[in-house]
């Protein structure tokens, strides 16, 4: 940065950032530390694809913000340089049905979207497998946030079609990686028996980073993302402490960016602890923001109703939700269960004198924070 007459102050066209993109949540770092054993396991499972064989199916599990998606993306980047291998990673929060998943695969293979209507799944599936056989390619599909397929009761049908492709279309070679951040979800038990019989995945677990690992990872980001001496060790340690408390590395990455922006707002050349504390009020809701972005309109409306009737009995919440949307109790109950599994709301059964057992519904976050992000 250029010298400024007022020492320690930024001029209007200066910045504390060397490369702000380093602090974006979906940034793939050049160096990926503290996940060496997980990368080795994934490479072992994927290696057959390079030799023209179906790779081993793999289940990647771990809490949010532990490097699961980054690991798969890095290896897919390496596989993408190999001839005869095609990789497709999709976000099941967005593509949460079997048809949506295969539409995304079709788009990657043919480089244009399939018709939104008028084409059956069987025909869509057939065109995909025919092209794979014609081009003599192995396909590796990563279902990121696969838990969303379970929430929509689409997981078994989707996996069955992928896993049985070689039987329905001779010569088709497809391997599957499923990635889940929902540790309460027993993936195998929740699948249909017809899928359990063919899905015997390698398991790769990503534990939470410890504080020392967090400091090391965030220090690497600051060196690439900030100019020299923008953030000191005490401030970085505080960011690491808050990140460890949340258990989600994405909180720390987002916190560094917001702290830098807060410092710039003060026209400061350095990030102080006050910048970190101020930024944390927003960064701590990274997981919430991500969940809310993927909700459908009825789901978002239910969240609004729950915010208004926070802690009320399910019946009162349903009546208000039904009045707003016209949706029936069955669909309402499905949405409650999904939002509960996502950790956006909490639905607990309680005993009420004279009424028996009933369910109370409340937000899992501060109501204002939720409403601000809807």
TrEMBL record:
Gene3D superfamilies, A to Z: 1.10.8.60, P-loop containing nucleotide triphosphate hydrolases, Winged helix-like DNA-binding domain superfamily/Winged helix DNA-binding domain
Family: Belongs to the CDC6/cdc18 family.
Organism: Haloferax larsenii
Segments forming domain AAA+ ATPase: 54-203
Domain Cdc6 C-terminal: 302-374
Protein's name according to its UniProt entry: ORC1-type DNA replication protein
Main function: Involved in regulation of DNA replication.
Pfam families referenced in this protein's UniProt entry, alphabetically: AAA_16, Cdc6_lid
NCBIfam families xref list: orc1/cdc6 family replication initiation protein, PRK00411.1-2, PRK00411.1-5
Superkingdom of origin organism: Archaea
Binding site for ATP: 66-70, 209, 221
HAMAP family: ORC1_type_DNA_replic_protein
SUPFAM superfamilies assigned to the protein according to its UniProt record, in alphabetical order: P-loop containing nucleoside triphosphate hydrolases, Winged helix' DNA-binding domain
Biological processes, Gene Ontology terms: cell division; DNA replication
Presence of the UniProt keyword Coiled coil in the record: no
Regions that span the bilayer: none
């Amino acid at each position: 940065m250029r010298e400024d007459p007022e020492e320690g102050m930024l001029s209007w066209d200066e910045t504390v950032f060397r490369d702000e993109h380093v602090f974006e949540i979906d940034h793939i770092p050049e160096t990926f530390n503290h996940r060496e054993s997980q990368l080795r396991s994934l490479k072992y499972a994927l290696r057959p694809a390079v030799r023209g064989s179906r790779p081993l199916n793999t289940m990647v599990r771990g809490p949010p913000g532990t490097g699961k998606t980054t690991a798969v993306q890095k290896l897919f980047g390496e596989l993408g340089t190999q001839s005869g291998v095609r990789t497709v990673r999709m976000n099941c929060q967005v593509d949460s049905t079997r048809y949506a998943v295969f539409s995304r695969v079709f788009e990657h293979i043919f480089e244009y979207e399939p018709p939104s209507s008028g084409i059956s799944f069987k025909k869509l599936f057939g065109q995909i497998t025919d092209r794979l056989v014609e081009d003599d390619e192995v396909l590796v599909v990563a279902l990121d946030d696969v838990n969303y397929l379970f929430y929509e009761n689409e997981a078994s049908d989707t996996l069955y079609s992928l896993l049985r492709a070689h039987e329905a279309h001779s010569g088709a070679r497809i391997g599957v990686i499923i990635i889940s951040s929902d540790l309460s979800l027993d993936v195998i038990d929740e699948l249909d028996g017809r899928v359990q019989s063919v899905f015997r995945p390698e398991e790769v677990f990503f534990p939470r980073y410890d504080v020392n690992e967090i400091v090391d990872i965030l220090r690497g980001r600051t060196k690439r993302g900030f100019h020299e001496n923008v953030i000191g060790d005490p401030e970085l340690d505080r960011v690491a402490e808050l990140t460890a408390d949340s258990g989600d590395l994405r909180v720390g990455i987002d916190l560094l960016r917001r702290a830098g922006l807060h410092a710039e707002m003060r026209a400061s050349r350095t990030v102080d602890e006050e910048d970190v504390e101020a930024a944390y009020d927003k960064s701590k809701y990274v997981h919430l923001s991500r969940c809310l972005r993927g909700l459908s309109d009825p789901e978002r409306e239910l969240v609004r109703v729950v915010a208004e009737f926070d802690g009320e009995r399910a019946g009162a919440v349903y009546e208000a939700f039904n009045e707003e949307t016209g949706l029936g109790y069955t669909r309402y109950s499905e949405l409650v269960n999904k939002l509960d599994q996502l950790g956006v709301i909490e639905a607990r059964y309680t005993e009420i004198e004279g009424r028996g057992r009933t369910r109370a519904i409340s937000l899992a976050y501060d109501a204002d924070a939720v409403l601000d992000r809807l």
